[in-house]
Recover the amino acids of this structure.
C-alpha cells in the first residue's frame, strides 16, 4: 500500500479478542472505549452500535462495580463487536465479567492487587480461553516502583509490565497483550520501544489521557505514528476527551496516512485560495459527512482549480478539478466527458463516489 516506506513490523505472538486476531502480522485493529455509565445499558449499547458502524474492531467497557457487571451481561448480548472488560481494584469484577461473556480483560498492575488475586483471574480466563491486557499507566504505577524511580519513567513503566508478565509466565499463561501508556508522548514512545525489545507479546499502543479533540489528536497522531513507523503496535486506541466515534475515525486516519490500513473515503482537498471555482471547504466537509457510512477504501481529490487539480485527479480514484461554472471529473486518472455543475457539485459528486464504490465492490465478488 505504501510505495515509499516499507514498514517492517515487530514480530509478535498471536492472540484473539473474540474473533479479532491480534499480533503476528494481523491487521492492526482499532479500538475505542465507551464513556457512558455502564449501568445505563441502553445508552451504552447505542454507543457501541455507533462505534461498530464506524468500524471499531474492539470496544472496551468500564466495570467499576457489581451493578456495572450485571449491566455488562445485558450489553454483551446486544452487540456483535468483541468487548473488553476494563477492571481496576476489585479482581472479583474480572471474574464476573468473564462469567458474563467478556472477550478480553484489561487489568491495571498498579491497582489490581497481589499475586493471589492475579492467580484467581488467570485460572478463570484459562478455562474460557480469554486473553488479558496488562495495561500499565504512568498515572497509576505501583507504589514501590514509583518510590524507586521518583517519577514515571520509561524504565518504571517497563518494570511494572515485566513484573506482571513474569507472574503470567509463572502461571503458564501466554494469552495476553501489553500496553505501557503515558500522557507524555516521548515517555510513552520510549517505554514501548524498550518493552518491544524484551517481549514477544502483542502490544496495544496509545497515548493515554491525550486531551481534547484537537490537542489529543495531535499528541496521539505523533506518538502512535512514531511507533507504527518503527513496526511497533498490534492494536491501538486514540484516547480523547471527545465522542468515542472520533477516536475510531482518527485511528483509521493514522493507519491510512501511513499506508497500513484503509477504510472509507480518503479526501485530498486543497486549502483554497482566490483561484477556487467552487466552495471547496463546504464541498469536502459535506461530502465527508454524507459518506460516513462508506467502508470501502477510495481516494477522492477535491481541488478548486487547475493548478494542482489535474495532477491530483490523475492519481486519485476519483478527482474533481475546479473550472468556470463546471468542473472536470476524473476516474482512475482518466478525464470524463461530462463535467459537474458547480452549483450542484456536492450532490453530483456524492452520486459519482457511490457509483464508483459500487463498481469496486462488484469487482471484488
Amino acid at each position: 500500500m505504501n510505495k515509499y516506506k516499507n514498514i517492517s513490523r515487530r514480530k509478535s505472538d498471536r492472540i484473539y479478542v473474540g474473533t479479532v486476531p491480534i499480533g503476528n502480522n494481523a491487521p492492526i485493529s482499532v479500538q475505542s472505549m465507551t464513556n457512558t455509565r455502564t449501568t445505563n445499558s441502553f445508552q451504552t449499547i447505542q454507543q457501541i452500535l455507533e462505534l461498530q458502524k464506524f468500524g471499531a474492531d474492539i470496544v472496551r467497557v468500564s466495570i467499576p462495580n457489581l451493578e456495572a457487571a450485571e449491566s455488562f451481561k445485558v450489553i454483551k448480548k446486544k452487540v456483535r463487536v468483541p468487548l473488553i472488560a476494563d477492571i481496576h481494584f476489585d479482581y472479583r469484577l474480572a471474574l464476573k465479567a468473564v462469567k458474563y461473556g467478556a472477550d478480553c480483560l484489561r487489568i491495571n498492575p498498579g491497582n489490581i492487587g497481589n499475586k493471589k488475586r492475579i492467580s484467581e483471574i488467570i485460572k478463570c480466563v484459562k478455562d474460557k480461553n480469554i486473553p488479558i491486557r496488562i495495561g500499565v499507566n504512568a498515572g497509576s504505577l505501583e507504589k514501590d516502583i514509583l518510590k524507586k524511580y521518583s517519577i514515571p519513567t520509561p524504565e518504571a513503566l517497563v518494570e511494572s509490565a515485566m513484573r506482571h508478565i513474569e507472574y503470567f509466565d509463572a502461571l503458564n499463561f501466554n494469552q495476553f497483550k501489553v500496553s505501557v501508556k503515558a500522557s507524555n508522548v516521548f515517555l510513552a514512545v520510549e517505554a514501548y520501544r524498550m518493552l518491544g525489545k524484551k517481549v514477544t507479546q502483542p502490544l496495544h499502543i496509545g497515548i493515554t489521557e491525550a486531551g481534547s479533540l484537537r490537542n489529543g489528536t495531535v499528541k496521539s497522531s505523533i506518538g502512535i505514528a512514531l511507533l507504527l513507523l518503527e513496526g511497533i503496535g498490534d492494536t491501538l486506541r486514540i484516547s480523547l476527551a471527545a465522542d468515542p466515534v472520533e477516536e475510531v475515525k482518527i485511528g483509521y486516519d493514522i493507519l491510512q496516512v501511513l499506508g497500513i490500513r484503509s477504510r472509507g473515503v480518503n479526501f485530498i482537498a486543497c486549502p483554497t485560495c482566490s483561484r477556487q471555482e467552487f466552495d471547496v471547504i463546504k464541498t469536502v466537509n459535506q461530502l465527508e459527512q454524507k459518506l460516513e457510512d462508506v467502508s470501502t477504501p477510495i481516494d477522492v481529490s477535491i481541488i478548486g482549480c487547475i493548478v494542482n487539480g489535474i495532477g491530483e485527479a490523475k492519481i486519485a480514484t476519483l478527482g474533481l478539478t475546479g473550472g468556470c461554472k463546471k468542473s472536470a471529473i476524473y476516474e482512475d486518472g482518466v478525464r470524463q466527458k461530462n463535467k459537474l455543475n458547480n452549483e450542484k457539485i456536492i450532490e453530483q459528486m456524492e452520486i459519482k463516489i457511490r457509483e464508483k464504490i459500487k463498481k469496486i465492490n462488484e469487482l471484488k465478488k
Remarks:
- The first strand starts at residue 15 and ends at 17.
